[in-house]
Amino acid sequence: MTGKDETDPELIAGHGVVVRAANGDVIRYDPSGLVMRLSDTVIADIALRLGAGAGAGMVRLKAHPTEGVGEAAEGPEERSEEELLEGIDAWAVRREGDWLRFTARMAGAQGVRGFRRHVTGGAVLGDGPGAVLGILGLGGPRAALANPRASDFPHHIVAPEDDIGAVGMAGIEAAPETDRLEPLREVTHEALVGETILHWQIEKFAPLPLIVARVETDASASAADLARGQAVANLIRAAGNLRAAALRMGKRAKILAICLDYALEDLGGDTIAYRDGMLAVMRRIEGELGRLGFDRPLFVARFEAGLDPETAAAVLQGQWELAWNHGDHRLIFSSPSYAFARDAYDRPTDAARLRMAEMTAAAISMGEGWRCPTLFLAEWEPGGAPLIRVTAQAEGPLVLEGGGAAGFAVLGGGVTVEAVTLAPDDPQALLVRVSGKEQGLQLAYGAGVPGGVRDGWQLDSRSGAPLNRWALPAILPVHEGKSGGAA
After folding, report:
1. pLDDT of 119-130, one tens digit each?
2. Which residues are 91's β-sheet partners?
3. Which among 98, 197, 349, 462 has most CB atoms closer than 10 A?
């Protein structure tokens, strides 16, 4: 059956061929079991049918080493154990299929852990239990902002091996297919989120999963263009590469979250068009990921208010619309942007980027149960005093910090905010005293200035100061109250 004599010196003990075709071995065996070599077309079809939960416990599947009938295409050669482990303080080494698995002490915050490396070489990867996790991102050019350094967990937070790293293709061209992974050369928001999660895992003495981080961006001038653009196509390719890499390791793939960072880039100036464009983005992503076998993803956005409430008003209101009306999409806002220090160009500082990532990680950990306080109604209080009642929806009583205007401002006319207090009769309402009553006023919160309204949630940050869950910005028309309106 094998076509070779069992005494052939090329055969290794415990290894052999069960079925061989003219263009190569079809079924081999080794100590880990049977190894099937199939064509790329068959592999692609099987991968589609297996779904995201398949992989572990299945017969190992490999692409056939030929691209055409009778044309031999040599893949990377196996390397010796000595070559694969050169310079690595490793022990408990064993080979399982096409992987060398071992315990080692390596650079990074992970300490002594299990690792793996493919027998043909490539990156040394963290070898934790469970699925290979993906933290993917999508946005405009600002979303590609990254710190040029290695990750705190260089073997546990990686990117597809395409020489691009975590920052993606910038919408210039299509991302390539690959089932291999490589360390990061820079740390994006998504990678920082992964670092935060792994630091938390270490604090809990919990296992460290392997995380694939990638953000894809383009220069779309509107949310509708983003939905049709190259960045979304490359994001889907990144998800496919995540899945292929997981299958190569005999694991399943899971997308932990997709970070959305597209707001101030929208130049349309239309609130509803922005909202509908972002809904189209999420619909396209969900449909494409479903065809790859993934569940509907959790989308996590940061509410961007910008530095100028006049120019950012439409996008601010569009995000507010999304916070209230995002259909059945799994969308949450991790935090408003005003909570983080920024430079004159509206770019977050390095310390702020760490805090942003911690808020995103906290939101991911709670999923759809996460809610920043959201202001939804402003109306004149009855009586003679120029007092506006602002009602919010939050996970608990509101907390007011800072005094003064607390981030509120009146748009239109010459009316100013004089004081803000908590409503004595409603733990999720505020009373805003203004300098006078006029019709047609709008009350803005957190638009171009930091706000002072939050709930009672708090988290210790690695940056030092605690993190709070601040209210999302809003621009609300001031309505007449129950007993009359503006004078």
Report:
1. 999 999 999 999
2. 103
3. 197
